Amino acid sequence: MAQKLQALRAFFPSDWTDAKEQASVGNARALSAIFNGVDLNVFKLLNSCSSAKEAWKILEVAYESTTKVKISRLQLVTSKFEALKMSEDESVLDYKREF
C-alpha cells in the first residue's frame, strides 16, 4: 500500500516542476480543443484518453485512409480539374456551378 501511495504522490500538482506544469496545461488545452472539435460519436472514442497525443493517434486511425484510396481520390480530382473547361456560350455563373 505504501508503494502505491508513493506512485500516486508524483501526480499531485504541488510536486510538479514548472516544466511539468506547463506540459500539463498544454496537454489539457490540446485535449480540450480536440474534444470540442469532434462530434459525439468520435468523442465516445476519445473520452477515455488522458493525453492529447493518445487522442490524436485515435483520430489518425479513424480518419486516415489507405494510400491507395488517397491516390485514387487525387487522380479523380485531377481528372475532373483537367476536364473542366468553359464553353464560349456558357455564362460565368453556369461555369461556376460545374465547379
TrEMBL record:
This is Gag-pol polyprotein. It comes from Cucumis melo var. makuwa (Oriental melon).
